[in-house]
Amino acid sequence: MTHLSDAIRAARTSRREFLKTAVVSAAALGGPAAWLAARPAASMNFTLGKITTVSDHVLIYHGPINVGIVRDGDRALVIDCGDESVSSALQELGITQVEQLLFTHYHRDQSCGAARVLSTAAIGVPAEERDLCADPARYWNDDNQLYRVYQSFRPDHLTPTEPLPVARALAHGDRVEFGPATIQVLSTPGHTDGSISLLVEADGKRVVFSGDCLAGPGKLWDVYSLQRGFAHGGQEIGGYHGFLGDRWRLAESLEKIKALQPDLLVPSHGVLMADPAGAIDALVAALERCYENYVSISALRYYFPKLFTD
User: Fold this and answer.
1) Which of 31, 89, 123, 192 has the fewest Cβ atoms within 10 Å of its own Cβ atom?
2) How much is the pLDDT for 44?
C-alpha cells in the first residue's frame, strides 16, 4: 500500500510540474534588453512595445507577437508582422520601406496587421500553407473544415479571414538574401502542418525565428495544435484520441533547429532563448513526461494496447 501511495503522489507531482513548465499562456513581459551583455542567461523577458537590438542589422519588436526586423538602411525585411503596432517601431527605427514580409506559419495572429501596415511588401509564406494564406475563403466555405465535424479534429479558428497577396512560397532549403543578411528556410512542422523556421545570419550572429515551435525553455505556446491521430505497433487512432499525437514530428523539427547551432531562438510567443539547445531539450523531455502521465490513466491503453508497447 505504501508503494502505491508513493506512486500516486509521484504521478500527481509530475503532472503539476508539467503544468508549470510545459505550457505558456501569454506572451512574455518584463525587463530590459540586457541579454547581449549576459549571454549565459537561458532566456529573457521583455516589455511589450519595446525593441531588442540583436546586431546592427537584426532587431526584434515585442508586440502581441515577437516580430523580426532585418534592416538595411531605411528599408527592411519583416518576419511575422503581428498587428499594426509594429508600424510605430519601424518609424522609430527610421525605416520607410518594408520590401519583404515573411511568415513562419499561416495563423491570423502572425499576419493580422499586414494589409494595413505592410501593404507594399512582397509576401512570402510556407509553401504547404500558401492556399490558407492566399485563399482562406476556400477553407472557411468547406463544410469538412467546420469544427463540429470530427473528421480530422484539427480545425483552426486562427485561419485568416482576409487573403494575403502571396508573392513567394517558401520551401525547405530556400534562401533569401537581404542587404547583409542571409535567411535560410527550414521546414519545422508540428504547430501547423506547414510551419517553417527562418535562420537569419548577419553580423556574425545566427538567429532562428521559430514561430510557435516552442515558447521558452521546456514550454509550449499551445498544446491543442499537437492534437493528431497516429499509428504505431500496427494500430491506428484518429484525431479524437490524438492528445499530443504530433509530438514526434514537433520533436524532429526541434532537432533540426538545434542542429543549426543558433545563438538565439526567437519564438512568436514567449521569451528569447540564448541557450537554444537547452531550451529544446527541456521541451522534448517535458512532452514525454506529459504523455506518460496521460497514457497512465487513459483508456487508450485498454483499447489500443499495441500503441504503447514501447
Assistant:
1) 31
2) 63
Closest CA to 196 of 233, 177, 160, 170: 170
Q: pLDDT at position 215, please?
A: 96
Residues 6+ apart with CB under 8 A from 27: 48, 62, 64, 65, 66, 269, 270
First to last CA, the chain: 27
d(CA 68, CA 265): 11
Q: CA angle at residue 53 from 51 to 57, to 5 degrees?
A: 120
Contact by Cβ (8 Å): 121, 69:
no
Distance between CA 176 and CA 306 in Å, rounded?
A: 45
HEC string of 182-227?
EEEEEECCCCCCCCEEEEEEECCEEEEECCCCCCECCEECCCHHHC
Q: Let me know: does 110 contact 81? Beta carbons within 8 Å.
A: yes
Domain count of the fold of the chain = 1
Q: DSSP string of 218-253?
A: TBBS-SGGG---EEETTEEE-GGG-TTTTHHHHHHH
CATH no. for residue 172?
Answer: 3.60.15.10
**How many C-beta atoms surround the C-beta of residue 133 within 10 A?**
27
Can you read off the three cell numbers belonging to residue 52? 531588442
The confidence score (pLDDT) of residue 38 equals: 42
Q: Is the dihedral of CA 9, 15, 19, 20 positive or negative?
A: positive
Which range of residues forms the domain containing residue 53? 2-308
The residue written with cell numbers 523539427 in the block is: 253
Q: Which three cell numbers stand for residue 95?
A: 525605416
Pairing of strands 122-126, 196-202: unpaired
What's the predicted TM-score (pTM) here?
0.83
For the chain, residues with pLDDT lower than 50 are 1-41
pLDDT value for 24: 37
